[in-house]
Amino acid sequence: MTMTASERLRAVEDAVAQLRSELGAAGVTLPSLRMDPVSAAGMDPYPLVELGRCNLDTALRLVAVLHHARK
Question: What does 27-67 look like in DSSP terms, one character per residue?
Fold first, then answer.
């Protein structure tokens, strides 16, 4: 079953919201986290999520969270 454009948008918006929430719970904020509007507007069944740019402190927090998750 193929997703409609509105279903794809809703799915990527939900994924961004969930990712933002989980990262926030781990103490990480990616200020540029968002749906990629170009990929979401096309017919690609899997729109991209932009993680965006972050400062050094945020990058190190993300490294720590990912390192801890592997243990």
Answer: T---TT-EE-HHHHHSS-SS--EE-----HHHHHHHHHHHH
Dist CA 48 CA 36 (whole Å): 5
Q: What are φ and ψ of residue 31, in 5° steps?
A: -65, -25
Residue type, 62: L
Against a cut of 0.85, is the pTM above it?
Answer: no
Q: What is the pLDDT along the chain (71 residues), one digit of tens a residue?
A: 577 888 888 989 999 999 999 999 998 999 999 999 888 877 777 789 999 999 999 999 999 999 998 88
